[in-house]
Every structure is written in C-alpha cells, then in structure tokens.
Amino acid sequence: MRHAGVRLQIDAVIVSVAGETPRVLTVAGAPRLPSGDFAPETDRTLELAARRLIGEQTGLRVGYLEQLYTFGDRDRDPREAAGGPRLVSVGYLALVGVDAAHAAPSGVAWHDWYAHLPWEDQRADAAERTAAARFVRARSRRGDAPLRERARVLFGIDGAAWNDEAVLERYELLYELGAVAEAGGRDAAFGMPMELDHRRILATAIGRIRGKIAYRPIVFELVPGAFSLSELQHTVEALAGRVLHGPNFRRLVEDSGIVEETGERRPSGGRPAKIYRFRPDVLAERPDPGIGIR
C-alpha cells in the first residue's frame, strides 16, 4: 500500500519536581505528551515550534529546552498501516520550576513519571523493580545467551550493577518481551501506558536527565532560587530514583563550589537549615559543573 508521505511532529517532555515526586505533564484523556505538527510556513525553527506548541497546549512559557531525539520507527502511528503518512517526531525536553508548574491550566495534568515506569524507582519500595527483574529473568531463560546477558545487565540481576541511565534500554527490553501494554502482549502488566510511543519518549528523557545531572547544573532548573541542601538532595533523589547518603551529598555539593550560602536560615525539625542558591560563576570556572552522584 502506498503511503501518503511523511508527517513531521514535535513531542514535548515537560518535567517538574514537586517535593519528592518527579512529574511529567500530560494532555487530558489517554495519557500523552503535548504534541503538534511542525508548520514549515510559520515555524522558523524546530525549537520555536516546540515553544509554540507548549504554550498553546499547556499555557507554560518554558525556559530550559533542549532537543532530545528524533523518533521515526515504522508504524509508530497505527494509521500508517492503513496508508497514512509516516510519523516522524522531534522530541524536546523542557524543565519547569515549581512556581511555573502551578500555572498549568485545565486540560493538562501532572503525572508522577514513576507511574509510567515504576521499575525505575529504587527508593522506599523496590517491589516494581523486583517484579520486573523476575519477569525478565524468567523470560530470558527461555531465550538465547545474549538476551540473558541483556536482562542481567539492565536489571541488575545476578550481581550486575544497576545503571541509572539505561532507562530506555530497560523499557525496550520489557517491550520486546511483551510486558508493556504498548507491545500488545498478554503479559502487559508493568506501568501506566501512554499513547503511541510516548512512554518510550519519556524513558529517553529520564535517561537524558539522569546522565546530565553529573555534568550540567540542570537540577537547579527544578528547585526554587533559594533552597536547603536537604531540598536539593530530595530533588536529585527523585530524578535518580534512589536514596543518596546525606552527609556525602552535602560534602560533595559544598566542596564543588556549585552553590553558595545566602546567609539565611530556615526552621527545620532540628537546627535551622542553611539556605543556598546556585552560583552561576561556576559555569565559567569549569566545563562540567554538575552534581557527581556516582
């Protein structure tokens, strides 16, 4: 069957953190990312197209925005099988501070991103990760040696270390094994599905964020201008999906020179907490001003 050309679209992963919950903005109805067609007649660049559709669909004016990836696999859109155009999407990642996140209008909703990828959260309850690991172990035993090794490495099985950044690879393995609804398998039991391949796009974004924490100061896009080190740690833990050692984190951040004290203190459960802010001069001092949490 002849296909009706190519349709170019923008998909936006908009992320915010509320307390200890990392959130992704979805459009009402079946969970999906804000998306829209690229308009070559009026959109001068892809980035301007992304900012336009984010504003139109969410009411947000985002600051931090980066191109994520281009998604163009065959049959991403079911209508392609019926002769529709091939759907190619350029994904963008936007980071939104807590104050701006409150401005989102009706018609959109913030979702805990671990509702969609629950095996990625290793904090209080590792049940979902354990269940997913058991599933892939059982399924990979029926397969060949390369599949068993992928399962072992990606899900930290049999002594393998867990790699925070391999979010997309873990999702794709579960997809391959029919363990997510988007794959159409009978074992689709893990996580809340999203329309089309938007959960795959979300997984790509989470992996990108986790990787960049170590060498870019992106976490400061998600915290208030003034914060305690405990608040900063909770934000990093939410994004990484794991608990960090408090004294080590504090020492690492203070020694890095990436933050500075404001001179203020805030009441807390015990001693009043010192308040800090991001120190932008660090960007000129070294090429990798992130928070190395390894």
UniProtKB/TrEMBL annotation:
Matching InterPro entries: NMN_biosyn, NUDIX_hydrolase-like_dom_sf, WH-like_DNA-bd_sf, WH_DNA-bd_sf, WHD_NrtR
Species whose genome carries this gene: Vulcanimicrobium alpinum
Transmembrane feature ranges: none
Ranges where the NrtR DNA-binding winged helix domain occurs: 219-278
UniProt-recorded name of the protein: NAD regulator
